Each structure stands twice: as structure tokens, then as C-alpha cells.
């Protein structure tokens, strides 16, 4: 199976917070899942922790390399830029990642790298993996919260993504 490609400054285990969520679903393909993640207008229909999605350059709602967008999650207004973008192709997993940040001072600044991998597996299965690393005081606070809100919310996101793909 494939791995997430990490920028050095966001390598898991070196940041303030990290979560990983993964599911493997039989009877679904990466090319069925991809449109539900790529089209940001679909996100709120299957993920309750996202709202107010807007693109700065007016070229949304589809993601693309270099796209700048904004959304609200965990009550944070997150600015984001897509840093990796590879739609699914035969024998290659789909990949998308963005650098996200919340402006602020030392107590409120948050920086994240959120990456996705959608991969066809043998036997008619698809693997959906999302991982996120974060730095900053809000990240340290989230990492100490139990139950872990980011882990639980991202699980909702990947399960909702798979369910939305099954409905299409």
C-alpha cells in the first residue's frame, strides 16, 4: 500500500498533533470516491464539521494544485492551499494535500498539513486514508483533549466520503 508524502516540517512524530484515519471498503473504486472529495460543495453533505467553503480565486469548487480556499472546521477559520493533487489513474492512487493555517499570535496560530490517499486494492476494494499533522498551541490543546475530536471528526469524514461515493 502507498504512503502519505510528508513535507519535512510536518513529519508525524515531530509536530504538536497528529491523527491518522483509514478505512478499506469492498465494492468501491478510487474513481468513484475521488469526485466526492474533489468537489468541495459535496463535503457538508457527508461531513458535519465543515462549513463556509470559499475559493479565493473564484475557480472552485473543485480542488486543483495551487488552489487557495477557506473553510471553517473545529470553529477555526482555516486558510488553505492545495500542495499535492493527483487524481486516480490506473495503478496509481489519488492524492490530495493542503497546507492549512489559522492566523494569530503565539497562542492562537495553527499550521497543518492535511493529506489524503485513495487507493484501489486487489479484490475490488478501495483504501481511503487521511492523515493530518498540526503545529501551534491550538494543536497542543487538541492533542490533549479526550476523546480526541480530530480523530473522531476525521473518521466521520472518511466514512461519510465512502457512503457518499456508494450513493453515486
Quickly count the helices.
Answer: 4
Low-confidence stretches: none
Structural class: alpha+beta
Please outline the major beta sheet: 7 strands, antiparallel
Please compute the radius of gyration using only Cα atoms: 15 Å
Strand content: 35-45%
Helices and strands, in order, run as EHHEEEEEEHH
Shape: globular
Output mean pLDDT: 96
Number of strands: 7
The percentage helix is 10-25%
| Strand arrangement across the biggest beta sheet | 1-7-6-5-4-3-2
Distance from N terminus to C terminus (CA atoms, Å) equals 26 Å
| Quaternary | single chain
Topology:
Blueprint: E1 17-26, H1 30-38, H2 43-46, E2 51-55, E3 68-73, E4 76-86, E5 94-102, E6 110-121, E7 125-135, H3 137-144, H4 149-167
Antiparallel strand pairs: 1-7, 2-3, 3-4, 4-5, 5-6, 6-7
Helix pairs in contact: 1-4
Structural account:
The chain has 168 residues and is an alpha+beta fold. The chain is 24% helix and 38% strand. It has 4 helices and 7 strands. A 7-stranded antiparallel sheet has the order 1-7-6-5-4-3-2. A hairpin with a 7-residue loop joins strand 5 (94-102) and strand 6. The radius of gyration is 15 Å and the shape is globular. The protein starts with 16 loop residues before the first strand and ends with a helix.
